[in-house]
DNA sequence: TTGTAGGCGTTATCAT
DNA sequence: ATGATAACGCCTACAA
């Protein structure tokens, strides 16, 4: 791999490496003619500074690390899109890591990012992460960290999520207002912040309408292939008159299971995740959704991070920014489950 | 960022950096006691070798670059999953770049990957890439490159795709066998290999059944938001009795447009892309699909790449590996468009 | 068995 | 205006 270096240019032009370096960085104290010569030659040979050498020297990489549980997930891939757009506009590159919902891999992954001298980290916590000391330590070492989506208040960092509470509240309220009382809540593992927030929104809505909270209507599902179906069966035994699923995957799994059992669904609300409105519109039976602003979350999180990285003067305000969700109501024609 | 280096260990233990280095790499020519001491100390301080320094020294990075048009795309995100799994198991890391379907960004992106000393590249070409000399040049410099999904025979590299011809043939044949004769083909930009292959499969099936190829039934759509609808309208004017869409996105766009116009669909086949079978199963109107083995494509492509990177001895067989697709037939109840 | 020196590509400091 | 030198963290040939 015959990469051309500053040395090559220096040799060819009978200059010292320092002169070449200065010429390329357009230093003022350099002869205009020399400068022209160097720049021309560099261009002709398509010289590119070695980012690795620069990283070693400057102890930074112009790379930010993005750590997500899964890439193959509509929400996260759209978030990454937003992050990448912002990073790109600032001349940074993005390196993406997956934790596969494993705490151990999250730790390894964070170590890797740090070892590779990422200038900052954007993290969405794995579902098995309850302890964030590994992140606290980095923060003490002044590494800029921003959490998004799955956040933690154990960590004093800026965080960006959707308004999960509000979205869940609206979804549940809608179901109540259309006559449902026994609303099943199918949700993701309990540790994650979004689960808690969505559950709280659900409970608050029940509260508001004087409907008692019934624990037997709430079920947590992991990320396994065949976990959803038995849980739906289980919930059906509680004779619910509506389903409120906390994610795309669960909502789809739920629909699938119900269809299989030939159960007509009055209305199912999938909270959070149906960024892909196109799909939701075409689903049968139809399903109302709460749309999550994935792109915006990514952009805003990235902007927060760059504020920390570049404007070191500003003290990062460690607080959670919540971006409003948007509810899309799709009425289904049947209501057979309604009491 | 108080990262601990080999120097720190040397100073603390009153040794030279070389001794420490050797001890850590478990060199045979080192005193067992010294070795123990060093390793223990390193562990206690949680020492991690600086990959950047290593990259600079060894002129390689243990990172492979993956270049895709879009991350936020079911197919690509699943492919990346497969790639990552293989890379991870070999101790490599993956850095992902998006070209956003732009030739210019593909070039920039490839340069970046090279500058960052990626040990190899996995590329799915952008839809606006017709010229691959930028890749040929790298190949001459011995950089291992493997193409996947969107390949090119201008480049003598191992390539991995789905059996697009076979999939399209099967899809079209199925439509013919169920009585259709005027099968509209809604497809992606013409430059890309997969478009050509799918079109060829479509034509071959028509041929087999003596149906003349009608150019007015074929339309290419770009990746813009609102491109699909007018094209579908256009196609409808040709009074087709079936649709064969060449991607997830187009198939969904097509369904959406038809639904909006209250047009009953006898059957639409979306070729290639519905990795997300769950969604396809729930769609209304239902739609047969050709499933693409995204994960396997990623894995196989990565394996090819590692063969080139590690077993430099083996001459990479520059040929296209085609992984079979799987067709899932979902019969729709209505057939109103059928002549 | 251990230490010294040089180099990977670049820039900053200090000469000249 | 330009050059020599050292340093970033690591490894390795060579010396001791």
UniProtKB/TrEMBL annotation, chains A, B:
KW DNA-binding (keyword) present: yes
Q: Which GO terms describe its molecular function?
A: DNA binding
Q: What keywords is this UniProt entry annotated with?
A: DNA-binding, Transcription, Transcription regulation
Under PROSITE patterns, the record lists:
HTH_LACI_2
Out of the domains of life, which is the source?
A: Bacteria
Q: What Gene3D superfamilies has UniProt attached to this entry?
A: 3.40.50.2300, lambda repressor-like DNA-binding domains
Q: Where is the HTH lacI-type domain?
A: 4-58
- Protein's UniProt keywords contain DNA-binding: yes
Cross-referenced Pfam families: LacI (PF00356), Peripla_BP_1 (PF00532)
This protein is called what?
A: LacI family DNA-binding transcriptional regulator
